[in-house]
Design brief:
This protein is an all-alpha fold. The two termini are about 35 Å apart. InterPro entries: MFS_trans_sf (IPR036259). Keywords: Membrane, Transmembrane, Transmembrane helix. It comes from Oikopleura dioica.
Length: about 325
């Protein structure tokens, strides 16, 4: 995490040199060179509020809070679900399986191990969207200034939609027990989806904050964004008690009510994606129109909308009028 605000123009900005670790451990060696990009002062608090009150930020915060809780609860309840899915089976229905009860215990232990080892894939999964963003960015003309911004915002909407679908599907899957003591298809699918969704979901805040809002504001906006999810996380304990229902054995757990409720809550979040799609489309169209009317000057491809002189209030924190025209309902 940088110890100073990220500048508007990030070209040449070295986050490592300005990180808290470098400030504490290597302050003597961490000299600011002459060619380093100046980072400026941290924006005053009053400049953050127009962005916090913008419709797109508030709507995304609702999505982020709900889906974050659903993802964390799926992962947190996975071991309990595995035990429920197999210990609720009646071995009398599987006479063809020798030592049915032992097979159930072996399957449970295997799946718990797989669930734990699956976390190692979190280091690899983020490379997929990163490569796709880079690929689609390069498909735009070299003189088009909004290529990276458009690609990241499109990736944001796609990842949000994918996370919502997976959250709904996983919620429904948790209402079903295993089909047989030696059947692991359902459990492996649930584990795979619940792991795959994690890095994609937690990448969405930064795709939005760095592409739609001024970079110097991103740290504070992210901190505000996580506050609702902290309070929602306190629902985990009462909902888990509903699943347990006072049962002393895993076979008596009941995931039905909570899972369908969370599926409905996650599904409603698709409305956030719909609103953001039209809001982003409107904003991009306005920027392209302004760029075209100015004669489409040859400028660097990686230029961002956070440059000074931008008349879009979502990117200009120095305007006295903080009405966000591109986020009105």
């Amino acid at each position: 995490m940088p110890a100073v605000p990220i500048p508007k123009n990030v070209d040449g900005f070295n986050m490592m040199k300005t990180s808290i670790v470098m400030k504490l451990c290597c302050h003597k060696e961490n000299k600011i060179e002459a060619n380093d990009v100046p980072v400026g002062k941290r924006p005053p608090m009053k400049d953050h509020w127009p962005h916090i009150k913008s419709a797109i930020f508030l709507i995304y915060a609702v999505y982020y809070s709900i889906v974050t809780f659903r993802i964390n609860s799926i992962r947190g309840w996975m071991t309990s679900w595995i035990q429920f899915a197999y210990r609720s089976l009646d071995c009398s229905e599987f006479d063809h399986i020798e030592k049915c009860e032992e097979k159930i215990e072996e399957t449970i232990l295997l799946l718990i191990d797989i669930n734990g080892y699956a976390y190692f894939s979190l280091a690899v999964i983020p490379f997929l969207p990163a490569f796709l963003i880079k690929f689609f960015t390069n498909r735009y003309p070299s003189d088009y200034p909004f290529a990276e911004m458009r690609t990241k915002l499109n990736a944001l909407l796609i990842q949000m939609t994918f996370c919502i679908i997976v959250a709904v599907v996983c919620s429904i899957m948790m209402t079903f027990p295993a089909s047989a003591p030696d059947s692991i298809g359902l459990a492996i699918s649930l584990i795979s989806l619940s792991v795959f969704i994690v890095p994609l979901h937690y990448a969405t805040p930064w795709l939005l904050l760095f592409s739609y809002f001024p970079p110097p504001m991103s740290q504070f906006l992210y901190a505000v964004l996580t506050i609702p999810s902290i309070f929602i996380s306190f629902l985990n304990d009462p909902l888990y008690k509903i699943i347990l229902g006072g049962a002393t054995e895993a076979k008596d757990y009941d995931f039905t009510a909570v899972s369908y409720g969370m599926a409905a809550a996650s599904g409603i979040c698709i409305l956030s994606v719909v609103y953001m799609f039209f809001d982003i489309r409107k904003m991009v169209s306005k920027k392209e129109s302004d760029w075209a009317s100015s004669g489409s000057p040859k400028i660097e491809k990686r230029i961002s909308l956070q440059e000074e002189g931008d008349d879009n209030l979502a990117f200009d924190s120095t305007e006295k009028n903080y009405e966000l025209e591109n986020t009105d309902f």
